[in-house]
């Protein structure tokens, strides 16, 4: 009977450690968050690289994020997409699209420079609208931390002085 009690205690102790380890692992925030559409996961975005950044042309913050669409099982590759999302207006901008082989080699890369002309409105019930909704929901839930990490806006007078010291002339225009 003593051996039986010892075995039960050992099992209970082992299960306790197992459950404790599982509870601690689930308490850590997930690095990747799912983007769903019609109940299916269509992509994931990286919560550790999601940041707010200042729009260079407007006085507003943008959400900068990388997404990984769910790969097609028929293809032997996957894709990462780099987006900017406007928070004040429902608009998105695709900056980078990189295709990778399963082994991690770059197959192709399309990169666009930021331009106000690249903003597009995500159409209703499209993949892009699902991306926008999921990312903005996450950003709103973590707004305080994301705002705290935003770099202060560059001091234009200081920058002009630095450039003047290099012998560069700056022409100011009001457009």
Explain what the structure shows.
By secondary structure, the chain is α+β, with helices and mostly antiparallel strands. It has a domain at 31-152. Helix content is 33%, strand content 30%. It has helices spanning 2-27, 127-141, 143-148, 156-165; strands at 32-37, 40-46, 51-54, 61-69, 77-86, 92-101, 106-111. Strands 1, 2, 3, 4, 5, 6 and 7 form a seven-stranded antiparallel β-sheet that branches.
Describe this structure in a few short sentences.
Keywords: Signal. The chain is an alpha+beta fold and 175 residues long.
Helices and strands in order:
Blueprint: H1 2-27, E1 32-37, E2 40-46, E3 51-54, E4 61-69, E5 77-86, E6 92-101, E7 106-111, H2 127-141, H3 143-148, H4 156-165
Antiparallel strand pairs: 1-2, 2-4, 3-4, 4-5, 5-6, 6-7
Notable traits:
alpha+beta, 175 residues, 7 strands
Give the biggest beta sheet.
7 strands, antiparallel
Helical segment count: 4
Low-confidence stretches: 10-25, 156-175
| Approximate shape | globular
Compressed to H and E, one letter per element, the order equals: HEEEEEEEHHH
Number of strand segments: 7
Helix % is: 25-40%
Q: What distance lies between the first and last C-alpha atoms, to the nearest angstrom?
A: 91 Å
Overall radius of gyration: 24 Å
* Content of β-strand: 25-35%
Signal peptide: 1-25
Keywords: Signal
